[in-house]
Amino acid sequence: MSDGEDFGGNGEGGRLPLSVVQQETQRYGPASTPEPPRKIANAPRPDEQPPTGFQRAMGALRVALPLVQRVLPLINPNVGSVVSALMGQQTHGRPMPPPVNLDPIEDRLIDLQSRHHGLHSQVLEQNASLNRIEDNLDAIRDAMERNAQAQKELREDLKAVAGRIKVFGFLVFGMVSLSMLMSVGLYLYLHHLIR
Questions:
Q1: 60 in any annotated domain
Q2: Is the alpha carbon torsion for 40, 45, 46, 52 positive or negative?
Q3: Over 50: is that where the pLDDT of 5 sits?
Q4: Is residue 68 part of a domain?
Q5: What whole-number distance in Å separates Cα of residue 76 and Cα of residue 79?
Q6: Residues 72, 83: contact at Cβ < 8 Å?
Q7: How far, in whole angstroms, is CA 81 from its chain's centroid?
Q8: What's the domain count of the chain?
């Protein structure tokens, strides 16, 4: 390390002195020229535009999909089958699950619809009967109001008749009393004449 050799501590950025480079060149031969960089398959060409964000996201999704298909069945087996069905792929050669038989559900729905129609018709009949009962109650209420009005008028007529009967009774009583007084007076007068 003579000749002022410095391997990186003197502020020259860690460069070797020229004498060391010459010695190494004589010992090993001239340095080979570096190979030109190889083109990356997916690198954009100068005449092409760079991929959009959507294209990058779809590429990332294609890369992540096998991993997601392996991880999701561990979390929930149904999620994996749903995702694979959505993506239109079968997972690792496994057959697709058999189609679900919806006939019992459809039969149950038909039964529920028929019951619903039956209940609907019953509700309509009950509404019609309730309307008839309400009409009858209105008629009864009107009849009761008319009866109450008639009873009120009859009560007023009875009061008027009772007042007239009282007046007539007083007149009759007065006339009977007067006739009795006259009879007693006449009797006393005749009795006094006979003596």
A1: yes
A2: negative
A3: no
A4: yes
A5: 6
A6: yes
A7: 30
A8: 1
pTM (2 decimals)?
A: 0.34
Q: Which residue has the tokens 């004498």?
A: 19
SS3 of 109-144: HHHHHHHHHHHHHHHHHHHHHHHHHHHHHHHHHHHH
The two tokens of residue 25 are 């060149």
Distance CA 38, CA 29 (A): 26
Domain range holding 84? 54-92
Query: Residue 73: CB partners within 8 Å, gap ≥ 6?
Result: 79, 80, 91
Contact predicate 49/55, CB 8 Å: no
Q: How many CB atoms lie within 10 A of CB 16?
A: 15
- Residue 42: DSSP 8-state: T
Is residue 80 a part of any domain in this protein? yes
CA 110-113-114 angle, 5° bins: 90
Higher-confidence position of 71 and 38: 71
Query: 17 with 4: CB under 8 angstroms?
Result: yes
